[in-house]
Specification:
With 98 residues, this protein is mainly alpha-helical. 49% of the residues lie in helices and 0% in strands. It is built from 4 helices and no strands. Helix 2 crosses helix 4 and helix 3 crosses helix 4. The mean pLDDT is 80.
Amino acid sequence: MPGYRNSRTGLAGAGRHSSNHRPPGGERRSSPLTTEWGGQVISFPRGQVHTAHQRWVQIAAQFDGGNYAALAATHGYTERHIRKIVTRMKNEKKGEET
């Protein structure tokens, strides 16, 4: 588009509409991944679920029947969350025994 003119100013421009502007690599070299997955959101897990479960097992092991506040302060959780973790781990342990 060598004859491009800005419709607002009427000035010739060599910006993004210039004929010498090409995307890097061009369309001929587009990746097969782009063809297959273009526009999709792909998420790669970081393994946090596994490490969270390990942390919960550790919290349950440290629980002595009434140290919710101490565990919350140590692990950076609220007391309510510590209670949920302890309950969940107790239920999980019961499920393994039966």
